[in-house]
Amino acid sequence: MAGLHRSWSTDAFEVQQRHEAWDQALCSLYGRWTSARPACSGFSARVEYHTLQNFSVVECICDPCAATRGRIELQADDRDFIALQLVLAGAEQIRFDREQYELVPGDIFIWDSTRPMDFRVTARLHKISVLLPLSRFQAWLPQDWQDIDRLLRPRTGAAALLASYIESLSPRTRPDSLKHCDALVETTIGLLINSLDVDAPTAPESQRDMHLGSVRHYIAQHLTDADLSPARIALASRISVRYLHWLFEGTGSSVSQYIIRERLQRCRRDLENPAIPARKLIDVAVAAGFNDVTHFSRRFKQEFGLSPRDFRQQAAAARRDGPGVRHLPGQQPI
Question: What residues form DSSP beta bridges with 56?
Fold first, then answer.
């Protein structure tokens, strides 16, 4: 599948309109930013970019400028991504999550959309940035992805291979080179992992299964908490909400559906338990994390074909009749 290739330049705007146009361009290409008005009245910038689904390559040449990505911009953003930025010419200062970096030609800087950042271009800059889904990178390093080296100086070795690869994706020289999104995402992540000083990671699917198991264990331990939500689960697991939803893709249910079903299963076990036959339905529901008995009863019937009261009555009847007699949903004991 061919991607979308576009060019953008401040030359298309009047001088007094260039700052606003540049601000909008930054936000459309690199997530939400607030740019400072360039000191030079004749500010010039040129961008070529190629986007294929959720994989993008942006090549930018711009005069000195600056921009900030703080709490307001982070909250307004609607996507989680990781960016690999190769500097081809010029110089740039970056503050990412309170750490300061000085970028010169040949450097690769790795940043993501989850933390505050600002940049200042101090000499006319030429760079190529590759943007891809953060969740795909997290799948390789679910516990350590926040602790990677942000600045790579690829003079030789694996980082040099990564720099060569990024440069080969240039939208200016190869505008039609992006055709297979998943392959490009995995190739980029593979080269990045190979360039970082990290322990050899487990295969992504194994990491995914391991992390999903950890999340399910947390849910089981906090199922009785009526305020249990994807946001709380993600925070406790040190992952993003989007990564949490990605973990559940392919399982047949969303995070919220999984929580509901686990609560219903717990209620079913309580209703079948002969040791607590007189327990009120509201108590059974609250003990499993439901705070509305009407909602609980409706969801229980949708899941098991009987209301909680009828289910408990049939479970009691089955115990009286002996283990060899089974009653179908809705069937009265003979």
Answer: 51, 131
How far, in Å, are 106, 117, 149 from residue 198 at the CA level? 22, 24, 9
Alpha carbon of residue 151 to chain centroid: 22
Secondary-structure breakdown of the chain: helix, strand, coil percentages, each rounded to the nearest 5: 45, 20, 35
Local structure of residue 146 (DSSP, 8 states): G
CATH for the stretch 206-321:
1.10.10.60
CATH topology of domain 4-201: Jelly Rolls (2.60.120)
pTM greater than the 0.85 cutoff = no
Contact 134, 81 (CB under 8 A): yes
Identity (one letter) of the amino acid at 276? I
Q: If you write DSSP's letter for every residue of 320-331 in order, what string do you get? A: HH-TT----TTP
Q: Which residues pair with 59 in a beta bridge?
A: 48, 128
Would you give per-residue pLDDT tens digits along the chain (334 residues)?
Answer: 456 889 999 999 999 899 999 999 999 999 999 999 887 778 999 999 999 888 999 999 999 999 999 999 998 887 889 999 999 999 999 999 889 999 999 999 999 999 999 999 999 999 999 999 998 888 888 778 888 999 999 887 899 999 999 999 998 887 666 778 878 988 999 999 999 978 766 667 777 788 888 899 999 989 988 889 999 999 988 888 888 998 898 788 899 999 999 999 999 988 888 777 678 889 999 989 998 889 999 999 999 999 999 998 888 888 777 644 444 344 433 2
For residue 59, count CB atoms less than 10 angstroms from its CB and return exposed for 0-12, middle for 13-18, buried for 19 or more.
Answer: buried
Crossing angle, helix 204-221 and helix 255-272, to 10 degrees? 50
Cα(157)–Cα(77) distance, integer angstroms: 35
Give the domain ranges of the chain: 4-201, 206-321
